Each structure stands twice: as C-alpha cells, then as structure tokens.
Amino acid sequence: QVQLVESGGGLVQPGGSLRLSCVASGTIFTIMGWYRQAPGKQRELVATITIGGSTNYADSVKGRFTISRGNAKNTVSLQMNSLKPEDTAVYYCYGDLVRPYWGQGTQVTVSS
Fold first, then answer.
1. CA nearest 9: which of 87, 109, 104, 97?
2. Which of the residues 2, 42, 51, 91 could staple to 26 if both were Cys, CB 3.0 to 4.6 A apart?
3. Which residues contact 89 (CB under 8 A, 6 or more apart)?
4. Is 42 helix (H, G, I), strand (E, B) or coil?
5. With b meaning 16 or more CB within 10 Å and e meaning fewer, what string describes 58-96?
6. Spans of the chain below 70 pLDDT
C-alpha cells in the first residue's frame, strides 16, 4: 500500500521558520514534492525534487524554501525560512509514480 505521511506544520510568526517532512511507504517515487492550498484558492506547486536531486521551485518561494530528499529516497523535507502570511495554507506531500499520490496535508499558519 502506497502512503505519504506529513509532519511538521504549525503556527509561526512572520519571518520565522518551519520544517515539513514526509515519509513515503510502499514505493520509491521518481518525483516527490510539496503543494499547498490556501482557503478559496487552487492547490499550487511549491517545490519538487527528482530522485536524482533536480529541484524546481515556485517563484513565490525561491530563495526562502529549500526542498531536500533523504538518502533512502523515501523521505522529502521542506525547509521554510522567512515565512510570510501569504504562505499560510495546507501543505500536501506529493509523489509521482504513473499517477500522483498525496498525503493528508499539514496546516501551516503564518501570523503574528
């Protein structure tokens, strides 16, 4: 059974940092990443990373967020620095294997 489980969301003040982690079980994904969905908005790409380590970021997070993959290739993390209120959303871990797989989501709230 293929499963993605996220952890690490929470409440942080503007300018703060959070680290999200995701563990995949049941398979090794060729591409893993993070998407987010804010209230009333569509789900959008945050960052992806291939099994070879190539990364892709949304323009809105470049220079602030860093995606990485564990040595065993079944984990993916997102280090989020200099957080802004507009980063508030539910963050979903993503894995690509013929079809997309999603985690259950973790809430990130940036507010003073």
1. 109
2. 2
3. 36, 37, 38, 41, 108
4. coil
5. eeebeeebbbebeeebbebbbebeebeeebbbbbbbbbe
6. none
The 10s digit of each residue's pLDDT in 7-39 is 999 999 999 999 999 999 999 999 999 999 999
What pLDDT does 3 receive?
95
Between the two ends of the chain, the Cα-to-Cα distance in Å is 40
Instruction: Yes or no: say if 13 and 74 are a contact pair by the CB < 8 Å rule.
Output: no
* Six-digit token string for 43: 């789900």
Tokens encoding 1: 């059974």
User: Which residues partner with 78 through β-bridges?
Assistant: 20, 67
Nearest to residue 92, comparing CAs of 50, 32, 13, 49? 32
